[in-house]
Structure formats: structure tokens, C-alpha cells
Design goal:
The protein has 20 helices and no strands. The chain is mainly alpha-helical. Helix 3 (56-72) runs parallel beside helix 6 (112-135) and helix 17 runs antiparallel to helix 18. The two termini are 29 Å apart.
């Protein structure tokens, strides 16, 4: 039997962790929230022919590039955190994000590639460094309130999207596109810098392993977690970038379409903290499965039949509360799957996995809409991929129940304990016992906190 590993000290479960949670929420507001307002810029580009000759598909790729580049930079962000620390990584991200917005303000209207490089690639790299360096910090400070803290921190992207969607539209109309970019650059630089100064990680205390551990892909439960993220992003990216365009398709005005986009972000901001709170109450994997199933259900029963402004507002608000479930549950669910020490490695692999859906989901949706002459195919696509994500969580819950049974059995066999921290014990126990495989579906349907 291998020697027991030393357990990390328990998390404070509060205290300065709430300051860190607020800082991460503000960073999300000034990265993902700002990126969510791209629909406002897209509407301006299209209505004013800002870049003559550019197609809708090219503009769609600008928004997709920012997200996919944010995910692609995760290995570099991981190495930077490992060798230089979180604060240096956050600082580099601030510089890149600020530079991208300033560069976009000087983009030549005859050169669409300059927008690709500035608002797409450079902004995405900066956003990715800020995100990867901060997303794993709130879970390090909490135990029983971990999901609540993660929900609060991720809600920043929703509230940020609401504020920036309204502010960007107003600034474009009043001071022009170029100065809108410059004001955004100044605001983001200021807020992100203050948050970077205040934030504190516990990487050294808990012994976080900031590596790209490819061996995780050999674990079926981690592949299910990857599937959850992959299919969730296929639906989520389509929603945040297409809902305003759908509003135009059904005859709503540009102003009404921008309100729809803002309401969707409001829904995300309001919905993520409760998702985190109830995740700690009924179980993180269970909550992820329930809310992801609701994403599919709302697309089927509300969005498909939303042909008026009022019904579309209802869908944006209600659907928005659960649309970003993955972002609110990714870190807590990953802890349940791989343990706290391997959380950074698992998340960075997950960010790479979702590069493809983040890049191509919106072009796929546009192609479906253009080839069918309507949005029904796109709506069904969103509903089906959310169903696939929910199924991945369903099987992940099945695995977790079986694992907990094995942990209980081993604890009975070793009443003095087996010397591992609970989070790492639960992530590394071999559960492949044929006798338990035959009974795990029966146990699955029993209600329990998972």
C-alpha cells in the first residue's frame, strides 16, 4: 500500500475568500461580460457597413475567435502561473486586453483583418490569460460554499454583459466607435488592475498542479466532463451571439434586439448565484444536470414559439438564468471529478476541448439558418446539443454514485482512514467493480446529494 499523501490544510470557507470572489466577478465582467456585448458592435458593423465588403460570416468569426483564442492560450497561461504566479499572468492579460481595444479603435475600415487581430485574436488572448489565472481561485477558499462562490464570481460576466451592451451602444451613438473602444480600454484596465492587486490565490498552500496532465483523458469520468463542456458551448455561443439577430428576423427593431441581448445577460447574472447556492445544497453534479436539462427544455417550449417581443423577452430572461450553467458549475464539478489539487490541470484541458465549439458553433448556426430560410433548425440544434450535455452529466452522476459507494466500503475496511484528503480520495478511487456495475443504475434513481 503506497504511503499516504499529506492532506492540504482546510480552506477558510469564507473570510478573504469573499474579496477574491468579488475580484474574480469583476474580472469576468470586464472580460467575458465585455465580450458578450459583441452583438452590439456586430449590429453597428452591419447597419453602417463599417468594413465595406465584409460578410456576416466574417463578423461572426470575430466573436468566435475571441472566445476560441481565450481557450487556446490556456496552456501558456498554465505555464505562466506555474513559473511566474497568478499576478504576473493576470498582468499580462490586462496589457493584451487593453492593447486589443486600443488597436481596434485605430482599425482601418478597409482592412477587416485588423479587426480579426485586435478585437478577435489579441482580445481573446488577454481574456484567456485573465480567465485562466482567476477562475480556479474562488474554489480554493471554500468547502461547503464552493459552488455559491463560483456562481457569484461567474455572474460577473452576465452583469458585465448587461452593462456593456447598454453602455457600448450609447457610446457608439454619442462619441463614435473609435472613442467607444478607447473608453472601454481605460475602464477595463483600471478595474482589472485593482482586482489583480487585491486577489490572492492558495496554489502553494494546497499544492496545485498546474500541468497539462494528458493522463486525465484516460479516465471515463473526465471524458464525460469534457462532453458536458463541449456540448454546452455548442448551444451557449449560439444563444449569446444569435438571439439579437433572431429578434431582427421576426421583425423587431434594432433597439428591441439590443434589449433582448441585454436581458439575456441580465438573466445570466441573476441565475448563476442561485445555481451555485443550490449546488452546495442538492449536489454540484445534480444541479448541473438539472439546469442543463432546463436549457434544452426552454429552447423547445419557449424559444421555438417566441414570435413576439414579449415572449422573446421572457425567453431571454428565463433561458438566460440557466444558459451559462457550464461556467457556473465547471470548477465545482471538476473538483468532484479530479480533486482539488488537479483542478487547474483539468480545467486547462477542458478549455482546450471547448475551442472547437466556441469557434464554429456560431458559423454552424448561421449556415443552418441561411440554408433553411428560418431559425427553426438553429433552435432545434441548440436544444439538442443541450440535451447531449445533460446526458453527459447524467452518466457522470451515475459514476459519482458508484464511486461514493466504493469510498464507503473502503472506509469500513479501514476505520482509521487511508490517509488521503477527501477531495483527492474521491477523485482517485478505483470503482470498476463488476458487482457494483450491475447495481449502479438502481442506486442512481435514489435521490441523494451528488
Amino acid at each position: 500500500m503506497p504511503p499516504p499523501s499529506e492532506a492540504p490544510p482546510p480552506a477558510p470557507n469564507g473570510g478573504y475568500g469573499w474579496v477574491c470572489t468579488l475580484c474574480v466577478a469583476l474580472i469576468n465582467a470586464n472580460t467575458w461580460g465585455l465580450n458578450s456585448s459583441y452583438g452590439v458592435f456586430l449590429a453597428h458593423y452591419l447597419s453602417n457597413d463599417t468594413f465595406p465588403g465584409a460578410t456576416y460570416l466574417e463578423y461572426a468569426f470575430v466573436g468566435g475567435l475571441s472566445i476560441s483564442c481565450a481557450m487556446l492560450v490556456s496552456p501558456l497561461a498554465t505555464l505562466s502561473i506555474r513559473y511566474y504566479g497568478s499576478h504576473v499572468t493576470l498582468s499580462i492579460g490586462i496589457v493584451l486586453e487593453t492593447a486589443s481595444l486600443m488597436a481596434a479603435s485605430f482599425a482601418d475600415e478597409r482592412q477587416i483583418w485588423q479587426l480579426f487581430l485586435s478585437q478577435g485574436v489579441c482580445f481573446g488572448f488577454g481574456m484567456g490569460l485573465l480567465f485562466v489565472a482567476s477562475v480556479g481561485i474562488p474554489p480554493q477558499w471554500f468547502t461547503t460554499k464552493r459552488s455559491l462562490a463560483n456562481g457569484i464570481s461567474s455572474s460577473g460576466s452576465g452583469f458585465g454583459g448587461l452593462v456593456y451592451s447598454l453602455a457600448a451602444g450609447a457610446m457608439i451613438r454619442s462619441i463614435g466607435l473609435a472613442w467607444c473602444f478607447r473608453v472601454l480600454a481605460i475602464v477595463c484596465f483600471t478595474v482589472n488592475t485593482i482586482c489583480t492587486i487585491l486577489i490572492r490565490d492558495r496554489n502553494k498552500i494546497i499544492g496545485s498542479r498546474h500541468l497539462l496532465d494528458l493522463k486525465l483523458f484516460k479516465r471515463p469520468e473526465f471524458l464525460l466532463f469534457n462532453g458536458y463542456g463541449f456540448f454546452s458551448m455548442l448551444g451557449y455561443i449560439v444563444l449569446i451571439f444569435s438571439l439579437a439577430n433572431y429578434a431582427n428576423r421576426i421583425g423587431l427593431t434594432a433597439s428591441q434586439a439590443s434589449v433582448i441581448s441585454a436581458i439575456l445577460n441580465l438573466g445570466q447574472g441573476l441565475g448563476r448565484p442561485p445555481i451555485g447556492y443550490f449546488s452546495d445544497t442538492i449536489g454540484r453534479i445534480t444541479m448541473a444536470g438539472l439546469t442543463t436539462s432546463l436549457c434544452a427544455l426552454f429552447a423547445f417550449v419557449i424559444w421555438i414559439f417566441a414570435k413576439s417581443y414579449e415572449v422573446l423577452i421572457l425567453y431571454a430572461l428565463v433561458g438566460g438564468t440557466v444558459a451559462g450553467t457550464f461556467w457556473a458549475t465547471a470548477a465545482p464539478v471538476a473538483v468532484e471529478v479530479v480533486g482539488l489539487r488537479d483542478l487547474p490541470a483539468a480545467l486547462n484541458l477542458e478549455w482546450l476541448v471547448i475551442v472547437l465549439p466556441c469557434t464554429f458553433s456560431q458559423p454552424i448556426a448561421l449556415q443552418i439558418a441561411s440554408s433553411t430560410g428560418g431559425y427553426l433548425g438553429t433552435q432545434l440544434f441548440v436544444a439538442v446539443v443541450y440535451m447531449a450535455a445533460a446526458l453527459c452529466v447524467l452518466f457522470l452522476r451515475k459514476w459519482k454514485i458508484n464511486q461514493l459507494k466504493e469510498i464507503a466500503r473502503r472506509e469500513n475496511d479501514h476505520p482509521n482512514g487511508i490517509g488521503m484528503a477527501e477531495s483527492d480520495l474521491r477523485a482517485n478511487v478505483d470503482i470498476a467493480r463488476p458487482a457494483e456495475r450491475r447495481s449502479q443504475w438502481k442506486d442512481f434513481w435514489k435521490w441523494r446529494k451528488i
